[in-house]
Amino acid sequence: MPLVEDVKDPQGARVAATDQVNGAAYWKKTSGLMWTVLAIWFVAGFGIHFFAPALNPIHVLGFPLGFYFAAQGSLIIFVVGLFWFAKRQNEIDEEFGVQED
């Protein structure tokens, strides 16, 4: 059942009406995805930096490993996370029939 269906308003014009049950399920999945991504970003943004001093005795390409992870690892996680979020949100949109054309 699609999330949005065509109905007519009192003047006879076609408008979109949202089914409340599907709307709640859609929002639950979308907000769950949002909180998952925010948790991953929090860990990548702060967690890596928290453990950086313990990793600094190890060197990669002349840089301390903690510094390298903080500088490169968190950025890589952010970019991969953006693509994953967009893909997953499109899947949710298709499931509820509100995808973009």
Automatic annotation (TrEMBL):
Source organism of the structure: Falsiroseomonas algicola
NCBIfam families hit by this protein: Na_symport_sm
UniProt protein name: DUF4212 domain-containing protein
Keywords: Membrane, Transmembrane, Transmembrane helix
Keyword Transmembrane helix among record annotations: yes
Transmembrane regions: 33-55, 67-86
Sodium symporter small subunit domain residues: 25-99
Upper taxonomic lineage: Bacteria, Pseudomonadati, Pseudomonadota, Alphaproteobacteria, Acetobacterales
InterPro entries linked to this entry: Na_symporter_ssu (IPR019886)
One Pfam family here: DUF4212
